[in-house]
Design brief:
Elements (H helix, E strand, L loop, with lengths): L3 E7 L2 E10 L3 H15 L4 E12 L1 H16 L3 E5 L3 H9 L7 E3 L2 H7 L3
Parallel strand pairs: 2-3, 3-4, 4-5
Antiparallel strand pairs: 1-2
Helix pairs in contact: 1-2
């Protein structure tokens, strides 16, 4: 299943809902490009909602890291919400949990920008 991305803005925060698989090829590239396009429009607060992501491979993790790095280099913040337990475990094992700010829900991630 191809990666579907829908985005909307809530309280000045761009929320990108991801659905499907983030894997090597078009999917991981599309994810990176989506974040780059938001940054290009001047968006400084971005949440990736992972609620409907069914699978992520190492390339997908690389795309998330690249998106995070792009955001930081432009003075923006990228946060992740709605990680399933299996993805939380992957972030723990890979130590990426120390890189990303992860919230349990989209609303929590949005609210965290106000702090």
């Amino acid at each position: 299943m191809a990666l579907k991305m829908t985005d909307h803005v809530v309280d000045g925060v761009a929320v990108v809902a991801l659905e499907g698989r983030i894997v090597l090829g078009e999917e991981s590239t599309a994810c990176r490009e989506k974040v780059k396009s938001l940054l290009a429009t001047g968006q400084k607060k971005i949440v990736l909602n992972m609620d409907k992501v069914s699978y992520i491979d190492s390339s997908g993790l690389g795309a998330l890291v690249a998106a995070h790095t792009s955001a930081r280099s432009q003075g923006a913040l990228l946060k992740i919400s709605n990680l399933g337990s299996k993805f939380q475990e992957i972030l723990l094992v890979t130590k990426l949990v120390t890189v990303f700010e992860v919230s349990a829900t989209e609303a929590e991630a949005i609210a965290s920008f106000a702090k």
